[in-house]
Amino acid sequence: VAPTTPVCEVPSSAMTGTVVQMSCKETEGSPPSEYQWYKNGVALLEKTGTGGARAANITYTMNKKSGTLLFNTVTKNDTGEYFCEASNGIGLSQKCSVKRMQV
User: Fold this and answer.
1) CA 92 to chain centre
2) Hey, what CATH topology would domain 7-101 get?
C-alpha cells in the first residue's frame, strides 16, 4: 500500500540551546514507510557512527524508521523551512506541507 501524506510536527519557534524534536508519521503505508527530512528543500543527511570531519557540523539525529528529527541544541543556523517525505517503495512518495522553524 502506498503511503498517505504524512503528518509533520515542527515547532514554529525554539530557543537557542534547547532540545527540539520534530516528528513525521503516516499510518497507511505497507510495508511501513521510511521518512526523509528536508531543510530549505535539501535532504538532511543521516548521521552515521563514523563521525568524519564532514559530519562534525551535524547537530541533529534523524531516524528514518520512526520519522523523528532530534536537535540536541538548536542554533540560529537551524532556522529554516522543514518538511518530511514518506516512502515505502510503493506508489509515489508523499510530503507534508513545509513548516518554518525560527530559532
Assistant:
1) 18
2) Immunoglobulin-like (2.60.40)
